[in-house]
Amino acid sequence: MAISINMNSGLTPNAKRILERRYLIRKDEKGNVLEEPEDMFRRMDVKLAELIGYFVGHGCFHKGKLMLAIPHDSLELKDYFDIYIRSAFAIVNRSEQESKNRSINLIYHSQMLVKWLKSIGVDKEDSLRAFIPFIIFYSFALF
Hints:
Elements: H1 13-23, H2 37-58, E1 59-62, E2 65-71, H3 75-89, E3 94-98, E4 103-109, H4 111-119, E5 123-126, E6 129-131, H5 139-142
Antiparallel strand pairs: 1-2, 2-4, 3-4, 5-6
């Protein structure tokens, strides 16, 4: 049984503007937006779910930045997130920081991405209180 959820109802007007300016596909010569937010979620749902899942276990928001802790010997995982975040959100402004526990902190400098993730329901107060959008749990049933 498929569940029907209207993603527009959960987005603030500001979040919709951010989506239109930064993330929705533009294909015509005038730069008109040809994609609705629901289409973007369909396009990104599996990888977005992976990113959010990893964020819940190994990430945080800090001063408008998305930070992910990657094991130092996991270059494939580092490349995976770099490629996904670059292609899905057009963010290439990233830095790395070695931590004391032999992990690498990937730091994505984008207040817009952090605001957007929070606007769709992703947040994390601490390691025991993370918030995940309802749609992630139903992505395969919906699409």
